[in-house]
Structure formats: structure tokens, C-alpha cells
Amino acid sequence: MVKKILLLSCFLFSLFIAKGQQVSQQDKRGLKDYYRGFFPIGVAVSPGALKVGDEAELIKKQFSSLTAENVMKPQPIHPKEKEFNWGPADQIVEFGMTNNMKVRGHTLCWHNQTPDWFFEGEDGKPAGKEVVLQRLKTHIEAVVGRYQGKVYAWDVVNEAIVDAPGETIYRNTNWYKIVGEEYVANAFEYAHAADPDALLFYNDYNTIFPGKRERIFQLVKGLLDKGVPIHGIGMQGHWSVTTPIAAELENTITKFASLGLTVQLTELDISIHDKGESRRELTASDTTTFTAEKEQKQADQYALIMEILRKNKKNISGVTFWNISDRHSWLDNFPVKGRKDYPLLFDQNLQPKKAYWRVVDF
Ligand code: GLA
What CATH number belongs to 39-274+287-360? Predict the structure, then answer.
């Protein structure tokens, strides 16, 4: 009798699995379709992923918005003062236009991936404030101007705020050292002049932590009080299976939206590793396997985050995943060199993971 019951349950279970696989293969809908009534679902890409192939097909099926993972950043797009490298960024914009997708611009003013020439004066001395501001203006006018009417939103300033409280809320970058805090307002003014219709964002990480959240809030409030054109706050969202907790996420969205601004999740991925580690080499004790337990925790975390975002849809105008699938993520090498991560909704074969099905199940 027990054996019969066991056999019957095995049979029913395999029918269930087979049905699930059938559904997944036949499912013509992608994330963008499930989320049509909520917000666009985007993905950060490099031009290589857009060539004919399985990644390009997946992108077209699943996503309704694109961000350039790297090629619009100052270093790749403006490597020398008189030299722009438009080709790779053009390919992404072109793919977006052809496939009826939104394109977000990332990023105009940052302390990383920005060439030294922006800050160099004569005789190896730092350039003066006026020169640096003029360079920033020329850069923003050229990049925003080129994609006017095609790129609907820009991350104008990325990561200007310190992680730990200090004398000032500003990160001590070349921008800050040479220009002072007004470089932030200037960047927004230049971007607005170059495309008055583009939505302009301040973008940062660790937004869910109360201290950083407050500092970002103060920065943006100060800009609004001065009449600076800023329309949204980007929460990067490089999170883990344990952070954020629901209340932190919801409080942050509510606080930022209380400024009358729209909020976007601009760089979402859920690492299976703990956050807060420093850069280091891989050691023998590092786990690099995607265990069933991690898979479950990740699915729960994605389900929770997306539920909060749906609930707050009036304040959320976009969610962008940072990379396409677990085949490649920037977290494969960061902060631990050579440590594999599995932070996205699609596995290395581009198949939807458990987390995917939880994200579309509502
Ligand atoms: C930050 C930047 C992104 C990207 C990630 C790492 O979040 O905003 O452009 O460089 O780091 O991939």
C-alpha cells in the first residue's frame, strides 16, 4: 500500500514538473509583459550581447528598457579631450530604437571610469575650476545632445555621497576637490540644457542604509530648493539574499518619493554572497556553488523586493537588472577575484531560475 502511494505521488510529481517545463517553454510572455501595468523592466548590456544570438533573443523577449553597462561612461565614450568613441553606445541605442525599448543613459559624471584628462592642467598640475567645469559641460552637451530624443533618462551624477559620515556629505573626488559641491548642480543644469525632455537622476548605492539615505535625501533636497532640474533618484540595488529587509526598502522609496521625485531601481542584482567584503583573492574556503538553499533564499528575496516595488508602483518608474544572466556578472570578480556569483533571474544557459518564476507569480 505504502509503495503504491509512493509510486502514485512520484507519477503525479513528474506530471507536475513536465507541465511546468511545458509552460516555461510555451510561455510567450517575458518580464516586461508581466510587469506592463507596473513599470518598464530593463537590463544593463554591452554591445556584444546584442548581436544575433541567444542573449539578444532573450533581451527582446524579456526586457523593455536598456542601459549601457559601460560604453556610455566617460572613459569609454570620451577617452581624450577631442575624441569621442560613439560606435558602441550607438549600437545599444540603435538596438533599443529598433526593438521599441526605452534606453537609460549611464552615466555623465562619476569619479570612476573617468579619464584623467578631465582634471589635468598644464605642467602636470591639476586644472583650475573653470577649465574642469567647461570640460564637464562640453562632455555632457556632446553625449546628451547626441542621444536627445532617444535616451529618455540619464544618471547624471553617480555616487557623489560618502559612505561614512564625515565633515562633508560629499565624496572627496577630483570633481569635489577642484570644483566644490556645486559640480553636482552644474552637471544637472548642463544635462537639462542639452535635452530639456530627458528625466534626470541622481544615482547611488547603499541607499537603504539610514545614514546614506539621509545624506542622499539632503543632497537632493538642497538641489530642489535651489531649483536645480532633477527628476528622480536611482537606487542601484546591488543587494544580497539577506539585504535589504522589506522595511528598509519601503522606507527608502517613501522617503525619496516624499521629495516629489520618481524612484528607479537602476542596477538590481541579488548576490548569493555576503555584502560588505573588501577586494581580495579567492581562497580555498570560498564557496562558489549555487546550493539549493541559496537558490531558495534568492528566490524569496527577489519575490519580496518585487512585491514591494509593485506595491509602490506609483513612485517607481523603472527596474533595471545589472547584467542579463548568471553566464556573466560583474560580481564574478568583485569584490573577490575569480569568485563566481549567481545574482540574476536567468541561469548560465539563459533559462529562467526559481527566482524568475517567483517574480512573475503574482
Ligand atoms: C556601479 C556603477 C555601475 C557599474 C557597477 C559595477 O554600480 O554605477 O556602472 O560600474 O558599479 O558593475
Answer: 3.20.20.80
